[in-house]
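note to self: dont lose this again. the chain is below, predicted strucutre after it. 150 aa total, dont forget to put it in the shared folder this time
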Amino acid sequence: MRWGTAEPIVPGPTKYKEIIKIFAENSTIWFTIVHKETGQFMGQCCIKVAEPVKNRDGVFVISMLPKFWGKGYGTEATRFTIDHAFRALGIQRVSLNVLEGNEAAIAIYKKIGFKEEGRKRRANWVDGHWEDGLSMGVLDEEWAEMHWKN
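---
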């Protein structure tokens, strides 16, 4: 699993369960992704409404176990979570950050309506090289036009 951050390196939790707990406690909405037939844990996704709340900007995060990559589960979970955020939370945009090397995720985000809004050059050291961090976002009316067809 690739972990990326633009924050200074500080000691953090060593167990995945501890990382998940921190994400869950700091999220506005949180979903555990499980396999429909087996109930097996696949990952998590969440939305945190960014401060100041008046801007109604939800920040999206998803993490899937590698054995479930490339099978459509992440796309399904992303669509569900973003849709729920717009419908239930009344936010006006959803933002996310992704490393440029995560080409599969970027393709999914673009396919479902996200647009690249910015690039932080050499944002993170990954696997022996620097990668840029991309900021992406989708607005409520863009999402509605693409996903809420009558």
